[in-house]
Write a structure and sequence with these properties.
- This protein has a domain of 75 residues.
- 19% of the residues lie in helices and 23% in strands.
- The chain is built from 2 helices and 7 strands.
- A 7-stranded antiparallel β-sheet has the order 1-2-3-4-5-6-7, with no helix packed on it.
- Strand 6 and strand 7 form a beta hairpin.
Length: 140
């Protein structure tokens, strides 16, 4: 009789383990917690400095100093988190497409790498020791 209960207990534990292993999470009427980016843009992870990506017909280069992508052909245009940012005059604008529409955004809402940025060409920052040593020596 004792062996019968041990056998039944073992079968019950195995069945419970199989059920637990095969469990799947199902969300009904809500968010699964996964946030989708807009327009299937560049990867959300931080790629290597200089990583190139095409998005919406423009070439983007990752600037690790700022932590954002720089739009190569358009000065003062950047891409981060599914949105484009551009600086015009003394204000920043945001849009979901490189051609707009654009809305004014406050500096506090910008990605950290763009806050306090002075107007310039929007080219990636050059980091010391990353491929420019020969150029510097040639210019001396």
């Amino acid at each position: 009789m004792k062996h019968k209960y041990s056998f039944l207990l073992a079968v019950a534990l195995i069945c419970a383990a199989i059920v637990l292993v095969s469990c799947r999470s199902l969300t009904i009427g809500g968010s699964s917690g996964h946030k989708h980016g807009l327009g299937h843009g560049p990867p959300p992870h931080a790629p290597a400095h200089g990583y190139r990506q095409k998005h919406q017909g423009v070439e983007l280069v990752y600037d690790s100093g700022r932590g954002v992508y720089v739009v190569v052909e358009l000065p003062n245009h950047f891409y981060f988190g599914g949105r484009y940012y551009r600086q015009r005059e003394s204000q920043w604008e945001i849009g979901v497409h490189v051609n707009g529409p654009w809305e004014v955004v406050v500096e506090e809402s910008l990605p950290k790498g763009l806050r306090g940025k002075k107007k310039g060409k929007g080219k990636p920052k050059v980091h010391p020791g990353r491929g420019l040593g020969l150029e510097k020596k040639k210019n001396k």
